Amino acid sequence: MERYLSDRMTEGVKLPGLFEIYTKALEMQRAGADIVHMEIGRPDFDTPVAIKEAAKKALDDGLVYYSEPAGILPLRQAIVDYTKRMTGLDYNPMNQVVVTIGASEALDAIWAAFLDDEDEIIIPSPFYGAYTKALDYAGKNYVLVPILKEGGKVEYKREDFEAALTPNTKMIIINSPNNPTGYVMTDEDLEMVADFAKEHDLIVVSDDCYDNYVFEGEFKSIAALPDMKDRTLIVNSTSKTFSMTGWRVGYVVGHPAFIGAILRIHAQTVVCPTIFAQAGAAYAYGQEIPEVKDMFEAFLERKEYIAEFLKTIDGINYVDPKGAFYIFLDVSSTGLSGFEFCERLLEEKGVTLSPGNNFGTEWGDYVRISYACSLDDIKKAMDRLKEFFEENK
Fold first, then answer.
1. What CATH number does residue 264 fall under?
2. Is pLDDT at 2 greater than 80 in this prediction?
3. Shared domain check, 116 and 259
4. If DSSP codes are grouped into helix, strand and coil, which group holds residue 212?
């Protein structure tokens, strides 16, 4: 049957190791195994009640039809108000924002709207694995720039980005706080990327999905730097901030010409996001939600517990996370690849992690820990992880 599939599907688009681990864990769980899930970046909190009530009211009020493709105006207004609070920048809800089906559809629309067959996008690595999977099936080109150095240090070096530049480079994507490392870009990092983009006339896509989870200091947007607003597309989502992963509501804000191009792609592929989900999102972005602070405090407590615990295990290097809810861990001291480590940890200890090659092929010796689960589960998993390390020295 593979003869019916496109070359892109048979050659370049495969499910990453993360989903192999996840599927196997579910099979073991159905058979009665005690599994602690630390592979998926899905917050374990319920969506705040007031947000759900807003969506329910929208349903009761008959909000069950198509919205305009850009999204309902109350949500677009709430998004630009939220963006102003986070970045200090003003955007026009009439022509500078489009509501998408999560951040994933936003990125797909960006690839389609801006990247021709010969164009390239620079991606700092490690990175959210869906970036390249989506680019592969879209037939787009990318160049990876490793930013993770020896000993768990992350560095944005101008010379590395210059070396990746070609006449076809059109765009660069940044993600801060970063999935999978939890790294938060410094002022110097942001300024370097901004200067690089301006000098070479590049569009910057800023994936800000973890903007509410900065544990030290405050979130800063590259769009707020001098002369960067008009060349930056900000992508965000309700998924992480409000624990609304299944609602599938995201957005892009940017220059009117950029948003107009994205909107033409978006309108012809998905028409619009679910309208009553948009109503819930409008409430979420429209005011301060107390549960967001509660989630932040819980993630901070979990991060600190894991980071301290890992110090008790010999031979471990990891990126010190400053945000998001991930830790990227070098497991090469065990002699196992990241995938082998995850597979055996699941089979022998009932703990699921994500293999590092899901975040770039060069990270085969790494695994990602997601602490989007309860502190009780984290404590159980860390004890099992330590046992596994000690048994595999």
1. 3.40.640.10
2. no
3. yes
4. coil
- Edge-first strand listing for the sheet containing 169-175: 97-100, 250-253, 232-237, 203-207, 169-175, 120-125, 141-146
pLDDT, one tens digit per residue, over 128-187 is 999 998 999 888 999 999 999 887 899 999 999 999 999 999 999 999 999 999 999 999
Are residues 213 and 313 both part of a single domain? Answer: no
pLDDT on residue 393: 75
Looking at the structure, do residues 193 and 249 belong to the same domain, yes or no? yes
- Separation of alpha carbons 22 and 37, rounded Å: 8
* Secondary structure tally for the chain: helices H, strands E: 14, 15
CB 231 within 8 A of CB 254: no
Which amino acid type is present at position 193? V
Q: What's the average model confidence in pLDDT over 69-84?
A: 98
3-state secondary structure of 148: strand
Residue 384 pLDDT > 80: yes
Q: Which pTM value belongs to this model?
A: 0.94
Nearest to 81 by CA among 372, 379, 283, 297: 283
Show which of 286, 312, 333 is a domain's final residue.
286
Residues 6+ apart with CB under 8 A from 355: 16, 17, 18, 21, 337, 338, 339, 341, 342, 364, 366, 367, 368
Q: Using DSSP, state whether 239 is helix, strand or coil.
A: helix
CATH of residue 323: 3.90.1150.10
Domain extent for 376: 2-46+291-391
Average pLDDT score, the chain: 94
Residue where one domain finishes, among candidates 286, 303, 322 = 286
